[in-house]
Amino acid sequence: MASRLRAGRLGMAGPSLHMARRRLAGLVAVGLAVAGGAALITVAAVLAETGLTSHLGPERLEAAEILVASTQRHAVPEDIDLPLSERESIDADLIDTVTEVPGVEAAAADITFPARLDEPSTDGPIEGHGWDTAALTGAVVDGRAPAGPDELVVDTATAEAAGLAVGDTAEVTTPTGTATFHIVGLTDAPGIHTDAATARALAGLDEHAADLIAVRAEPGADVEAVAENLREALPGLEVTTGDARGDVERLADATATADLVAMAIAMAGTIVLLVGFITAGALAVNVANQRRDLALLRAVGATPRQVRRLIATQASAAAAVALIPGIAAGQHLAGQFTGFLTDSGMLPAGLPLARTPISVLIVAFLVLLTVQLAARGAAMRVSRLPATAAVAEARVEPKSPGRVRTAIGLVLLLLATVQSLLPLAIPGETAFVSAATATITAVIGFALAGPVLIGALTRRAARRLDDRTPAPIWLAVKNSRAFARRTAGAVAVLALAVGLTITQVFAQTTYTEVTAAEIEDGAIADATATGPVSAADLAELEGRPGVDAAVGVAGTTVMRVIDDAGSAESYAALAFTPGVATVADLGAAEGDLDDLHGETVALSADAARLWGVGPGDRVDLILADGTEVSPEIAATYERGFGFGSVVLAADLLTGPRFYDAALVAGDPAAVTDWAASVPGIAVETGAAVPQAPSGMTPDQWISLMATLAMTGYVLLGTANSLVAATSRRRGEFASLRAVGATARQVRAMVRREALITAAIAVGAGLAFSVLPMAVLGLGFLGEPWPQGPLWVIPATSGVAVLLAWAATAIPARQALRIPPPRLLASVD
Q1: CA distances (Å), 687 to each of 306, 519, 594, 771, 781, in order?
Q2: In whole angstroms, what is the distance from residue 697 CA to residue 686 CA?
Q3: Whole-structure pTM value
Q4: What is the pLDDT of residues 726-745, one digit of tens each?
Q5: Contact 492/450 with Cβ under 8 angstroms?
Q6: Spans of all domains in the chain
Q7: Is 712:152 a contact under the CB 8 Å cutoff?
Q8: 786: which strand partners?
């Protein structure tokens, strides 16, 4: 044995596997923990790979084998690039460079502009395009192509719906105004089409700009080789082929897949931490089962490093087996989850799921690395103990937990308390983040300081025991006190499950209620006209009798530049035309919202405080099309949840555009009369923008689903560890039976221990979650209790109690079915 131990890394494989065969129950617990964790990590990995590699393919520009466009993203150092949600134009004169590249047959500048066909039977906006790309892609035209500024080609489906034919005239409204066009042709290419010069004018581009360049390769040419030549000739631009062209043609799809990557990475980080936490708990039980064997190994010359390697080898072997079903289950769950994302509108329909060996290898690496770290950490104490001390601790745990560990735990508990109370002093999203993270901080602190705290609690309970105390209760309290470390491990994980569930549910519902309350208080418009609204429409509407003001509003995104390296944060934003104070009460804090025009912005008071700026200062922003601006802050406002962190003056937005809606102060009937003559415009009484949430948003549902999945994993991991820990107590049960305890009394003792564990865990979990959620309700809504479905609290607590009871009572009953002599003989 000693010579084999001295053989090093390979020499530990034999003892590892030999000991593993004799301790399969503990390794089964490890395997189950790994399988569940691998499934969750696989979901995140598949989603991330899907976001990075999957594309829907082009539609209108299918016949153009290559598309050249701007990169459509802001590069962030050492992080994921942020996508631009609006088109960044490129130099149309680059067509000359493109056509000179070997293998290129033809190229055309593609220009897109929003339009509204003012025909009674049409509904909503339509895309307009320059005819050049339609000609390049072989669009069939019945009639002729547009050749002048007043000529139009319409796709056959739109023409049929509007009752138009070649030779008719049509009124077309764009953000630049309304004009009459002569229809000179019908085509199979979707949308309406003008000549290139007219399309540029309607899109607000100068004569040297385009949205992208469509390229047709020569027949028989290697498209990928031609694309590579274009990349060399056009550095800094995006050259795409195949299905990736769809992301260039349809920016919304590219933005959605980029968001998918960010969400998957955020999920993966949390999941890996949970897997480490649960796996470490299962490994701790496995190590405890082998303390005597490990002590004997130390006695015959094994070094601490070899002991840790032995445990890590066992854990890795169990993990390798468990990875197969875990990854398979994760692949299935990933398909179900992406289906939900598609149904909720978060992902475009038809996006293929990426199931490649890459995600499998990443999952295997992350899981095995996590298992290795957890195994070595679990074996650290026993590997360092002298052989005699290790044998002494084989059945009884150490009496005094580490002082440093306990001190760190108490500090974290104090920090969590401070975090929970921050919403009373600091408003805004910072308070939500602080309250939500307080639960995790508290659970970690409790896991570290738990043995001392539980020891003190059970010691106090033990003092109340007397001769009248039933034997099962007496034994349960004494056992919980003597094995405070074992009890604390189970309590910490159960408390994590309870606290995590309650925190995530009520954080989401509280956020929704706060947002809805701020929108209800701040949206004061008398009517809302939704649809493609132009600047001319606003002017006409405002001139109507009975209308006091009409303010256009458009949704967009902005990025705030954080440092000189280019790091940035993205924010959803609303842009208003002048007069926002007449249709929305944002709760002005400083400055004057009447000054929100020209190159100005308004910030929520929380964002301004966080950024260290105020009215009169300038802030560096990047607009949705990549334009860098430094607007002046006109005002700050209090209702940042309802109206967002940033509100822009519409003058800042580049290029002509339709507004999403017009918010109107005045008589709603006057707005309805006006809209009756404008196709595609709907009118609602009151303010419909921003829309007050009636429930949780898709983002919040996704977050909740991910949280519930992780909570389920934590609960299963807890049950797994409790079953393994209870099965390990056969020697204890045998000793009790040997001194006269009946099987019924032992089962009663175990049930009461389970209830003690569950009671402490539920109490801790509620303290770590209900307190910060109640403080959130008090700080934001003036109601000192969690905002949302209160039944979640007893339901979560009941599940935790039932799980703790079942995971200890069932294996104890099975062990006690063995006759006492056989049970005693089965103990190592």
Answers
A1: 70, 9, 19, 35, 22
A2: 22
A3: 0.77
A4: 766 666 777 777 777 777 87
A5: yes
A6: 1-56+250-394, 66-249, 407-521+693-828, 524-685
A7: no
A8: none
